[in-house]
Amino acid sequence: MIFTPPETVSAPIDGSDDRFPIRRIFCVGRNYEAHAKEMGVVADREAPFYFMKGNYAYCPSGATIAYPPGTANYHHEMELVVAIGKGGFRIAADKALDHVYGYACGLDMTRRDLQTQAREKQRPWDLGKDFEDSAVLSPIVPSSRIGHPAKAAIALTVNGATKQSSSTAELIHPVPALIAHLSQYYHLQPGDLIYTGTPEGVGPVKPGDRIEGVIEGVGTIALTIGPAE
């Protein structure tokens, strides 16, 4: 070894001393109609599309993180997150939930100005989406305990003011459809996470802001924005 390999990135499991090793982070774009409209684009109803974050983007709920470099328009995006516990390839939609270990609250933090610049130039979104501390995650709750939150209220506040409020029932492509579609292109593995998309109401945050979110039956999430490095 020419250097010490990094430790396995893992997230806490609610009510357990065990942890959930994070393998890959898939993120679904424009999966709520109203959010697509506020972004000035048409929702993709025919099929979902994805971008990815490395597991180095993981950030635990409750953290205080630095305002990220290279942006002047840093946005919150509240999401339901699916934790895959059983691998599979070309999974049928009616069997998809068998592959879910559990669920969590997630924040897909976004350098919106960089994402928009990339989109306008038809370039990948990596600089706007895939960076350190951009995949905030609450403890994962096993689906064996809470079931599958297909019609759960989802909301986010910034400094106590409500910014996002919707329901997972509004997902254009619900969880079974996402797993079925994604598994046509990837061999899904235990440890994969799927951030399922954000409802309308995304917006900027600044140093000193406190973000808090909740998904009915799943849990809560919190993040404090610190000064820029």
TrEMBL record:
Domain of life from the UniProt record: Bacteria
UniProt key word Metal-binding: yes
Pfam families: FAA_hydrolase
Domain Fumarylacetoacetase-like C-terminal: 25-224
UniProt-listed InterPro entries: Fumarylacetoacetase-like_C, Fumarylacetoacetase_C_sf
GO function terms (MF aspect): acetylpyruvate hydrolase activity; metal ion binding
UniProt keywords, alphabetically: Metal-binding
SUPFAM superfamilies associated with the record: FAH
Name of the protein described by the UniProt record: Fumarylacetoacetase
Organism the protein comes from: Paramagnetospirillum kuznetsovii
